[in-house]
Amino acid sequence: MTLPKQAILEAANRISGEVIELRRHFHKHPELSFQEFETSKFVQEWLTKKGFQFKCDYVNTGIVAEIKGVQSSDTVFCIRGDMDALPIQEENLVSYVSQNAGVMHACGHDVHTSCIMGTMLVLDRLKDHFSGTARFIFQPGEEVLPGGAKLMIEEGALGSTMPSGIIGQHVFPDLEAGKVGFRSGAYMASADELHITIKGKGGHAALPEKLVDPILISSHVIVALQQVVSRRNNPKLPSVLSIGRIEALGATNVIPDTVSLKGTFRTFDETWRFQAHEHIKKLINGIAESMGGSADVDIQVGYPSVFNQPELTERSKNIAINLFGTERVVDLEMRMTAEDFSWYTHHMPGCFYRLGTAFHDKPTSGLHASTFDVDEQALEMGVALLSAIAINELSIQS
After folding, report:
1. pLDDT confidence of residue 161
2. How confident is the model at residue 1, as a pLDDT?
3. 322, exposed or middle or buried, with CB in 10 Å at 0-12, 13-18, 19+?
4. What is the pLDDT of residues 202-228, one digit of tens each?
5. Among 303, 329, 360, where does a domain finish?
6. Residue 332 near residue 181 (C-beta atoms within 8 A)
7. Which position among 148, 183, 379, 384 has the lowest Cβ density within 10 Å, counted as fewest Cβ atoms?
8. Do 313 and 298 share a domain, yes or no?
9. pTM of the model
10. What are the tens digits of pLDDT across the range 254-265?
11. Backbone phi and psi for residue 133, each to the nearest 5 degrees, phi listed first
């Protein structure tokens, strides 16, 4: 079946104003992970008004909606959008600035949600161009472990028949609006949290001979942990181990009993990932014991790595080129950031790509910044591309 390119572009353009208004509503009323109650209620009311079929209460706030093509088929293809915001106080001076103190859509999930709503409008208009079912996953809790994707899957959001594939798009302030980016294969890293407590014997800082200094032990641990990546890891395999928080509640003349360390470990290989966990534990415990102390090491297993299935990614990239031209489609580099979209890709072929959202005429802040915003011209492109990929997949799979 030939892709109805012009019809998709015209439909996306026709509803672009509504999609922007939806995005501004979500941006104005952000909610934290797994607390997206008003967001979910708004989406449900919108779906009901538009006459779409849906099920709700997955992980309390998650929603799964469906649109069936005119032609009958058992094939199901998924489009995912996340809904949660971040604990950040917004500093933008815009009419749609966050009304919820200390909460902000600083990662573009307002764009993701509004774009899949726009995609539903396009596919509903063009349902005679595909067969099977387009399943739309409105997902909570992407920003915190264990990730809403994992929980949605466990609660049956994928349905009784495994979908043929899934796509997700993410805003990208490093790429100007009007462009999109793809990468086949390994794209984003796994992410595990390190929670470490170094235990010693505190006391007066002027009497070190009577103490077991957990601050000194922690210093050795932090430096030595870098050996996990530099000496235990295959240098051809990207890995990162970073300590981002140190808490030692002593004073100028007080050594505390304990020191708390928190950090992250990230990589792309699942076998090495869990081997590294054991190296980390042995190294920390060994150093602490050799210096007279002890350690508690809690490694909270987070999101696996995102793997973009090459065939689906190549088809999606070609669809983007067909819609927008070669000059507006770029190749992406691997990223050490993480995404719970990865849980879906461990069940079915997936493609997670980037939607350029940088302003052409002014600086654009990075993700998770208090001044993050997007060039809203990108939303029309996001809707068109999601729609075109879904129609293509439900055509070729039928």
Report:
1. 87
2. 60
3. middle
4. 999 999 999 999 999 999 999 999 999
5. 303
6. yes
7. 183
8. no
9. 0.93
10. 999 999 999 999
11. -130, 130
Instruction: Tell which phi-psi region holds residue 141, choosing left (phi > 0), alpha (psi between -120 and 50) or beta.
Output: left
Tokens matching residue 45 = 């009311």
Q: How many CA atoms does the CB half-sphere of 357 hold within 13 Å?
A: 25
Q: Which of 251, 278, 303 is the last residue of a domain?
A: 303
Write out the two tokens for 324.
Answer: 């927008």
Please name every residue paired with 192 in a beta bridge, in sequence order, or none if there are none.
265
Question: pLDDT grade, residue 283 (50/70/90)?
Answer: very high
Phi/psi of residue 53, nearest 5 degrees: -85, 135
| Average of per-residue pLDDT across 246-269 | 98
Question: Alpha-carbon distance 297 to 232, whole Å?
Answer: 19
Burial class (CB in 10 A: 0-12, 13-18, 19+), 360: exposed
pLDDT tens-digit map of 25-49: 999 999 999 999 999 999 999 999 9
Considering its fold, how many domains does the chain have in total? 2
Contact 87, 18 (CB under 8 A): no
Characterize 117-156 residue by residue with b for buried, 16 or more Cβ atoms within 10 angstroms of its Cβ, and e for exposed. Answer: bbbbbbbebbbebbbbbbbbbbbbbbbbeebbbbbbbeee
Domain hosting residue 90, numbered range: 5-188+305-396
**In which residue are the tokens 């094939």 written?**
75
Amino acid at 144: V
Contact 200, 211 (CB under 8 A): yes
Using an 8 Å Cβ cutoff, are 231 and 276 in contact?
no
List, for residues 13-24, the tens digit of each pLDDT value. 999 999 999 999
Q: If you compute the radius of gyration of the chain from its CA atoms, what whole number of angstroms results?
A: 24
Query: Is 206 strand, coil or helix?
Result: coil
